[in-house]
Amino acid sequence: MRYYSTNGKAPMATLHEAVVKGLAGDRGLYMPETIKTLPQSFFDNIDKLSFQEIAFTVAQAFFGEDVNEEDLRKIVYDTLSFDCPVARVTENIYSLELFHGPTLAFKDVGARFMARLLQYFIRQEGNEEVNVLVATSGDTGSAVANGFLGVDGIHVYVLYPKGKVSKIQECQFTTLGKNITAVEVDGVFDDCQALVKNAFMDEELNNHMKLTSANSINVARFLPQAFYYFNAYARMKALGKADEMVVCVPSGNFGNITAALFGHRMGLPIKRFIAANNANDIFYNYLQTGKYEPKASRQTIANAMDVGDPSNFARIYDLYKGDHSAVTSIISGATYSDDMIRETMRQCYADNGYILDPHGACGYRALSEQLKAGETGVFCETAHPAKFKDTVDSIIGAEVEIPERLAAFMKGEKQSVEMGKSFAEFKEYLISR
Length: 433
Ligand SMILES: *Cc1c(COP(=O)(O)O)cnc(C)c1O
What we know:
Blueprint lengths: L2 E3 L9 H7 L8 E3 L7 H6 L5 H13 L5 H11 L6 E3 L4 E5 L9 H19 L4 E6 L3 H10 L5 E8 L5 H8 L5 E6 L3 H13 L1 H6 L2 E3 L5 H4 L4 H12 L6 E6 L4 H11 L6 E6 L4 H8 L23 H7 L4 H7 E5 L2 H15 L5 H13 L5 E6 L7 H8 L7 H7 L6 E3 L3 H10 L1
Parallel strand pairs: 4-12, 5-6, 5-8, 6-7, 7-13, 9-10, 9-12, 10-11
Antiparallel strand pairs: 1-2, 3-4
Helix pairs in contact: 3-4, 3-11, 4-5, 5-6, 6-7, 16-17
Bound molecules: pyridoxal-5'-phosphate.
């Protein structure tokens, strides 16, 4: 499979090149040249297949030309060492629980897949040392760091905004040591993302060391996120609830919903989608006006969605050829203030006994407001509520239980490198390493 850039000014890349480069040379995002449609027979029988079997079929459509079958099967099965089940919240609203992985958020799926695919390519190549740079607003860092922890030949630098991620998120990438370095940037998430993007564009730095990205822009991270939408459909079909299925994705950088839209393009019978935003309403405004106007990000209690210029908008725009009415015919939007998120968490807990995290709360609320008669909604519960324990406990007035695998991180000791937001300083640090 060849990959083209959404900016159209960079040469086509192989999967291997697209994974190692992350961002295309013209600053565009890579897109697969073709998106294969899966046969009707697959969808007819999908409810009888396991999550891993479903994911392997989807993975073959994306990666089957570039990775041999047995290695790909192993990568998929190793990645999905945990389930992504659907849980009933109300009669017509289900939660797609994406928090059963090692760092309790959906990013485990893409990060674990990418770590294994990159290792596959590095082994093919010989012993080149690769440096993974990742900007995080909270959950990416932990998922990527844990996905790569202890992998020979790869060093990971996690850049995060100082004081703007929760203590629990922070300990999941600052306490690991080994091949993981946490870089604490005096700025916001967009500053971290700018440092990473600048590093990839800097010729001198790239001649000095081999850099790759593990942000949601990387095809090896965002495409595997399609796996669990197929699984959600399968499990809902088994319940007899898949006929008019609406999928709602709490969105920040828009990688997760873009993967869902790729699934739709492959034939996954989802009726329509909702992108739920917090107060960072750039995509919501685009849906209303047809104009895409990035802004500085605003800090909210759903902090992994605090993105003022979502990277994957370029992929959505490309997928629908810039046709605003094509986008609005399949996706609607929603935007919620922190107060509305709090109110939703309280209400959902009181009515259904289900504990939402602040991100999932946006998804649940958008479905409860927008579902029509006969439709069933599935929203992504993108992280375990215990990852935001202080916030969640104070809102619902109860104690969220901390899962064992999360408690283990909290016992570690924090190590980080402090950094300003100027690229010159970051570059000098990398070169001196
Ligand atoms: C990253 C993240 C999101 C946003 O996902 P995008 O793919 O960036 O849109 C939502 N919720 C949680 C918990 C996250 O970690």
